[in-house]
Prior knowledge:
Blueprint: H1 4-20, E1 44-48, H2 52-63, H3 68-80, E2 102-108, E3 113-120, H4 126-136, E4 141-143, H5 144-153, H6 164-175, H7 196-200, E5 208-213, E6 219-225, E7 246-249, E8 253-259, H8 261-265, H9 269-278, H10 283-297, E9 313-319, E10 324-330, E11 334-339, E12 342-347, E13 349-352
Helix pairs in contact: 2-3, 3-4, 9-10
Bound molecules: aspartic acid.
Amino acid sequence: MSDPIDISLSRRGFLAAAAGGLIASAADPAAADPAPPAAATRPVAVASANGLASVARAFELMRDGTDPLDAAVAGVAIVEDDPNDHSVGFGGLPNEDGVVELDASVMHGPTHKAGAVAALRNIRNPSKVARLVMQRTDHVLLVGEGALRFAKAHGFKEEELLTDEARRMWLRWKERLSEDDDWLPPEDSGGGPRTRAKGRQDHVYGTINCCAVDAAGNIGGVTTTSGLAYKIPGRVGDSPIIGAGLYVDNAVGAAGSTGRGEANLQNCSSFLVVELMRAGKSPQDACLEVLRRVADHAEPRLRDSKGRPTFGLSLYAVAKDGRYGSANIWSGTKFAVVDAAGARLEEAAFLYKKD
Ligand code: ASP
């Protein structure tokens, strides 16, 4: 079993490895795409790139009159239910003990109400539980055992969320974690040093965020995730924290995020994106400005030799009028969008260009 110091070392190793692929070419923040967004229409929904089917579903539902939050939750449930997406819901990668712990939040523009769950086990659709926290309690956030009991009180069924494939991925990580434990990889596994950095190469982020605006300009948003893979049990990321992983203001727009949750928590990014849109920035420019703030605040251990963050963080935003945008710290990221022109993936703007 790793202690917290081991995890910290492992994370550094992983991030350094990740940076190795990113830092080969210098880039200028001005490299971000300044193109104005296409003429805005409603309904519209944006999501992380794993949400192409989700935005399509959300659009259909909004077109038929469904509330934008209900439409977004129905959209992300497709990914929560998908065993092949290892970043969300059923089939998500587990914590360091091999247990899947899910985080999710929802926010409803017309009522300005929010609900969230964190470190929820054994329930595959945490976004639906988060919506019930919003609708059927006087609270915003339930965690752990209390969140599970609340879900069961509302009829959710417990099930094992760790699929065989996710378990094998976790086992592979665990066996290569360090030389200080009793776990050994099989002899025919390709060899290589058992170093923390090697183990952490499997250490991945992943989430789905979906923000939706209906034809009338009402807004809903949801973020749902299994969080950082192989995290310390009990670790909560940005996804269930209103203002960090998700924020909606029905007068302005909505924003959400995927990527290194710790950076996002330290900068209240989604709230800030919405506030910058309120001050007049386009969704894309608001995302970029917040990412500059995140980059400015990055700890020295999380910077490359040029001072740039070694991690990835994506922000997604929609404005009440139907404009939308997304940006990542690094180039090469796509996001999903749907509007009258159909569901598609588009390139996100970025601060720094990678090779
Ligand atoms: N933001 C999520 C978290 O930190 C993970 C991710 O989006 O990749 O839990």
